[in-house]
Design a protein that fits this description.
The chain is mainly α. It has one domain. The protein is 77% helix and 0% strand. It contains 11 helices and no strands. The two termini are 31 Å apart.
Amino acid sequence: MEDSAVSPELASVAVVDEPVARQLRRLRLWFVGYLVWIGVLFAVALAAFHRYEAGGSPHARALWLLALGAFYLSLCNSLLPLPTAWIVLLLASDDVALVANPWARVALVSLLATTATVMANLNEYHLLGYIFRARLGQRIRRSHVYRWALRWFDVAPFQTLMLVSFVPLPIDFVRWLAILRRYPRPRFAAAYWLGRLPRYVLMAGVAVMLRLSTWQIAWIQIAIVALIGAHFGYQALRRRYQPAAA
């Protein structure tokens, strides 16, 4: 791809080293906001659980489970690669029955799960952005692979991030490329929100339409983890034995 194909939104963006003090200040500000988000979810879950335990309120139960689900999803990214499909399917399922209307349940679960996932990805963005600030990031940026991937990414970065967030495959390197490129955080968050929302709507809709039980959801998550593990195992074996064959 030619340099002229770079998208307008990145045409004027240059990768320059910020002062360490400014980066640390941004990191501290982010973590304050992130800890507030996590703390609010935990407090809401705890208060709703006590209310549900005391009076058996179905609204308190729904709030408790939604807050717990959002808390869990807010922790899940490539730095803490916990499985996520099961929590979305379970919260939307008839077994949990957060609300009586199934499509209101799909909307509620999808919106909250998407927002929590974006918070987790923004947390990864800030942590890796700080890690990549020094020699490691400079070495990666000087590599031929990075320069090749950057030409491909810069053609349509927003659309690429949207697609990656929708596809149910672990394509973490695209997120890392956006972090190395220092793609603007508001656009990064918006792309992930717009891409992840239809994915969660689809998953929640499947749980509702197929009336998935808790055991079926558990087996689905086990199968997903097994497939991902088999993929990475195959890649590791391939890398190990290719030099020997050569």
